[in-house]
Design a protein that fits this description.
The protein has a single domain, classed as Alpha-Beta Barrel (TIM Barrel). By secondary structure, it is α/β, with parallel strands linked by helices. It contains ten helices and eight strands. The protein has an eight-stranded parallel β-barrel with strand order 1-2-3-4-5-6-7-8, surrounded by seven helices. Bound molecules: SN-glycerol-1-phosphate. The site of SN-glycerol-1-phosphate has 15 residues, from strand 8 and helix 9.
Length: about 250
């Protein structure tokens, strides 16, 4: 599970073509407790976590730059911005998921905020990875649902998720991200993951409410290429060990 800073997306494509899977840990700068973060960083390095995603629905403080610098100092794992809005930008990361919320019908999150951030991004050294972001009902109203003012795709409507992902791929988006939202009660179902991964060729990220290595293995079997875990690891960084092992074991299988 090693990655190359110089080509995050190329690395993902190569991994996918070899049938290898990847693991990302999500840090929300607003929720972080320093002690736990240091423990998580050390474990992530030891266990071969592939990426850190950095972002959240609020990020109201100005800690983003500081946090990125702090992580970088301690750990060389690539830092990918996963921004909740157009203010969560920093040159200190390695890349950014340039998200279009294609499950929603809020024009601001389909194209509006992108217009605002485009000049900054064009000049930045960040690797920009255009991402079709699909929010799926996770059984509880998540921050991203509320903040984005959009409806998620119903959890049992695999066909709608498939058509949405296909449309994203046809529009040229380079990754599809199926997200039940941070802290979801019900993560995205294996059946939806299987349906979407069978329909698109681009790498598939899956996250939201994943708490166990068993769910990670099931998602990988269903066709997820990259798993994102935030809350569970924030609460118990020691979980990184089992979760990374689930990804490695899958590769070895
Ligand atoms: C949310 O997919 C991420 O956007 C991670 O969710 O915090 O529930 O793991 P959790």
């Amino acid at each position: 599970m090693t990655s190359n800073h110089k080509g995050i997306y190329t690395g993902l494509l190569e991994a996918k073509s070899r049938g290898e899977k990847r693991l990302a840990v999500l840090f929300d700068p607003d929720k972080l407790r320093l002690k736990k973060m240091e423990q998580a960083l050390d474990l992530a390095l030891e266990c071969g976590v592939d990426y850190f995603f950095i972002g959240g629905s609020l990020v109201v403080n100005n800690m983003l730059d500081g946090l990125l610098a702090q992580i970088r100092q301690r750990c060389p794992i690539p830092l990918i911005l996963f921004p909740g809005n157009s203010f969560q930008l920093s040159y200190r990361a390695d890349g950014i998921l340039f998200l279009s919320l294609i499950s929603g019908r809020n024009p601001e999150l389909l194209i509006g905020q992108h217009v605002i951030s485009a000049p900054f991004l064009k000049m930045s050294p960040l690797e920009i990875i255009s991402t079709g972001y699909i929010l799926v009902d996770g059984g509880v109203q998540t921050a991203v649902q509320y903040m984005s003012n959009t409806y998620p795709i119903p959890a049992n409507k695999d066909d709608i998720a498939v058509c949405t992902a296909l449309a994203g791929e046809l529009l040229g988006l380079k990754i599809i991200y199926l997200d039940a939202g941070s802290g979801a009660r019900t993560p995205v179902s294996e059946s939806m993951i299987e349906a979407v991964s069978g329909a698109v060729e681009v790498p598939l990220i899956v996250g939201g409410g994943i708490r166990t290595p068993e769910k990670i293995s099931a998602n990988l079997r269903a066709g997820a290429d990259l798993i994102v875990v935030g809350n569970a690891i924030e609460q118990d960084p020691a979980l990184i060990r089992e979760m990374a092992a689930a990804v490695k074991d899958f590769q070895a299988a």
